[in-house]
Amino acid sequence: MMRAQALLAAGAAAVTVLVAGAAAQTTRQQTTAKDLRPVSSFQSVADQQARSIALFEEAGKVLHHPRCVNCHPATERPLQSDAMRPHQPLVVRGADGHGVPGMTCNTCHHTANFDAARVPGHPQWHLAPASMAWEGRTLGEICAQIKDPNRNGGKDMAALLHHMAEDSLVGWGWSPGPGREPAPGTQASFGALLRAWADAGAHCPPS
Amino acid sequence: MALAIKVNGTIQSVDVDNDAPLLWVLRDALGLAGTKFGCGVAQCGACTVFVDGKPMRSCTLPISALGTREVTTIEGVSGREAEAVQQAWIARDVPQCGYCQSGQVMSAVALLKQVKKPSDRDIDLAMNGNVCRCATYVRIRAAIHDAARALEG
Ligand code: FES
Ligand code: FES
Is B3 exposed, middle or buried (0-12, 13-18, 19+ CB in 10 A)? Predict the structure, then answer.
C-alpha cells in the first residue's frame, strides 16, 4: 500500500514537471521570436501614436528577452540562462553594478565569452542599476522607465538611442555564445525600431 | 604560442595554446600546483588567483586574454593581509581536506585588502563563490574576523 502511494506521488510529481515544462515552452515561444519586424512594415499604421507604440512593442521583444532581463533584475541578484534562474553562485549588484569587494562580476566574467566553459564575458560586464530593473515589468512600465532621466542614468533621448543601438555590452545580447539564445533580430534592427519609435513621438504602451 | 607572463613577480616563458586557461598554464607549464582545479566553469573558486591584484577565476581566463597583467598565486601572495589570514587559518585550524583552501585564502586576502572590518554579510558575499565540500564555512568566516582584528591592532 505504501509502495503504491509512493509510486502515485512520484507519478504526480512527474506530471507536474511535464505540465510546468510545457507551460515554460509556450511562454518561451511567445516571448522569444527570433526576428524583428523591419521599421518599414509599420508604415501602414496611419496614426502616429499607434505606430510609435507598435514600434516600441516590437522592440519590446528584445527588452523582455532573457539576454536583457537577466542583467536588469528586480532584486540585487542577477538571473542567468534562457530559463532566467537566479545566478549561481549568489552575486549581487553592489554599489556600482559591478558586484562587491572580493566578488566582482569580472572575478568570473572576463573580457570575452569563454565558450569552453560557457562563461559569458565582456570588458564591462555588470548589472543595470536598480532604477532600471525590468524583470516582471510591463512594456509600458519599461518604456516610462527608460525615458526618465532620473532613472536611466541621466540620458536624453539621443543618449538613450545610442546606448541601445551602439553599446557593446548591450550588443553582447546578440552574441551570447553557445547555450544561450541570442536576442531577436540584430542590434541594428533593434536600434532602428527605437529610433523610429522616438521619431514618431516616443509614445508608451498603456500597460 | 610562446609567451612571456609575469607570475609571482618573475617573468616566465611558456609555450602553450592560445586558449589554454591560465589555471593549466600555472599548474602544467609552470608547476605551480597550489592553485586547484575544482570545476573548470567558474562555479567553485578553487582556481582563484590575483590578476593585477584582483581575484579572478583562472579556469576561465584564456592565456591570450592575460596580456601584460601580473598574476599572483597562493605560492606568491604576500603582505599584511596574507600574513594575517595565514595566522588566523592556522589558529582556527580552518582546512579539513584542504582542497579548496588556496582559493579560499586568495578570496579572503582580496576581501581584507578592500574592506578592513568586514561584516558577516560582506564575508558571505565575497566568499560564497568559493565552495568547500568539507563545509568549513563557519571556520572561514570566524578566521576572517580574526584576521581583520589582528590587522587593526
Ligand atoms: S575550477 Fe575555476 S571556479 Fe572551479
Ligand atoms: S577543506 Fe575540503 S573542500 Fe574545503
Answer: middle
